[in-house]
């Protein structure tokens, strides 16, 4: 049996170690865990305790949301704590997530949508569809990050925290140009689609 450096290590200590080693602080998901388990010893965080909390406080969410917001960060911190010798490796089993078949919009539906939606919504959806950007990436897109002449955009605030460059197909460039002109978007920090 492995001897752990700190049999009395608490969740807050493990979480601080995780944040320091991973170089980012996922406040959205870590803060609730800190509130729930903060001073609790790692050895006292049991699968039953974790499951009871999920049922009581997160039962209104879809299983995929519970997994992403609760089990994934919980297991990540426990894994790092184990690597640091703070506790044995414990993996908390998340709820089963049923895979749903994705229904895609066909060309006819998309054309009808683009013709009938508000211009800003239509252009945003067109941008999302043709650039493979996430919704938050499109909402955070600023004028300074769009180069219509060279046909690309820089998505700076991405899920991974690293910016990425996306190609703007010709089908998107002219509608973007018209939109930006009609909205008098000249300030580099202005959001292209009016969302912020």
What value does the Rg take, in angstroms? 23 Å
* Proportion in β-strands: 5-15%
Using the alpha-carbon principal axes, give the shape. Answer: elongated
Order of helices and strands: HHHHHHHEEEH
- Trace the largest sheet across and list its strands: 1-2-3
- Mean pLDDT equals 88
Structural class designation: mainly alpha
Strand runs, count: 3
Number of helices in the DSSP assignment: 8
- Helix percent reads 40-55%
Q: Main β-sheet: number of strands, strand sense, barrel status?
A: 3 strands, antiparallel
Residue windows where pLDDT falls under 50 for at least 5 positions: none
Distance between the termini: 53 Å
* Quaternary structure type: single chain
Description:
With 196 residues, this protein is mainly α. The protein contains 8 helices and 3 strands, in the order H-H-H-H-H-H-H-E-E-E-H. 49% of the residues lie in helices and 5% in strands. Strands 1-2-3 form a 3-stranded antiparallel beta sheet, with no helix packed on it. Helix 2 packs across helix 4. The model has no long low-confidence stretch (mean pLDDT 88).
């Amino acid at each position: 049996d492995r001897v752990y450096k700190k049999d009395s290590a608490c969740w807050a200590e493990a979480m601080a170690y995780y944040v320091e080693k991973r170089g980012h602080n996922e406040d959205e998901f870590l803060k609730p865990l800190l509130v729930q388990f903060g001073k609790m010893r790692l050895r006292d965080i049991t699968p039953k305790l974790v499951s009871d909390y999920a049922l009581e406080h997160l039962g209104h969410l879809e299983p995929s949301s519970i997994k992403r917001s609760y089990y994934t960060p919980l297991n990540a911190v426990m894994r790092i704590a184990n690597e640091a010798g703070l506790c044995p490796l414990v993996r908390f089993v998340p709820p089963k997530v049923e895979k749903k078949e994705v229904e895609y919009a066909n060309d006819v539906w998309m054309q009808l949508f683009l013709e009938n939606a508000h211009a800003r919504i239509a252009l945003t959806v067109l941008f999302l569809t043709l650039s493979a950007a996430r919704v938050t990436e499109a909402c955070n897109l600023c004028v300074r990050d769009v180069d219509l002449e060279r046909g690309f955009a820089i998505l700076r605030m991405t899920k991974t925290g690293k910016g990425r460059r996306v190609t703007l197909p010709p089908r998107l460039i002219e509608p973007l140009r018209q939109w930006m002109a009609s909205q008098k978007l000249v300030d580099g920090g202005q959001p292209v689609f009016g969302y912020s």
